[in-house]
Amino acid sequence: MKKIIHTPKAPAPIGPYSQATMVGDVLYTSGQIALDPITGNLIEGGVEEETKQVMKNLEAVLEAAGMTFENVFKTTIFLKDMHQFSQVNAIYGSYFNDETAPARETVEVANLPKFVNVEISMMAAK
């Protein structure tokens, strides 16, 4: 059975989707972009500041589901410009232990919602 996960500590959905859904013991997060959960405004300052906010948003969703980054087994990173990979990877990597890091793919895309530089989604399990 599907359970909707919602927290005010992450941005409210800006369309017909949930922050995350839990099916059994598996959590599927929607892609997060660098929206401030309080104001709904985009965080400015470049890809590094965006990535920090994206990871904070994902952390809030994981916490709402009773999980941490240690529960994450798969991620997808969407980048507007693959030349920004190293900056995103450094921040993203600081949230994971190298020995237990999740599987991941990183893809460059033509555009992202609100024309941001980075969007990340995750799957996690209890």
UniProtKB/TrEMBL annotation:
Transmembrane segments: none annotated. It comes from the Bacteria. CDD domains: YjgF_YER057c_UK114_family. Pfam families: Ribonuc_L-PSP. GO terms for molecular function: deaminase activity. PANTHER family: 2-IMINOBUTANOATE/2-IMINOPROPANOATE DEAMINASE RIDA, PROTEIN HMF1-RELATED. Belongs to the RutC family. This is Endoribonuclease l-psp. It comes from Imtechella halotolerans K1. The lineage of its organism: Bacteria, Pseudomonadati, Bacteroidota, Flavobacteriia, Flavobacteriales.
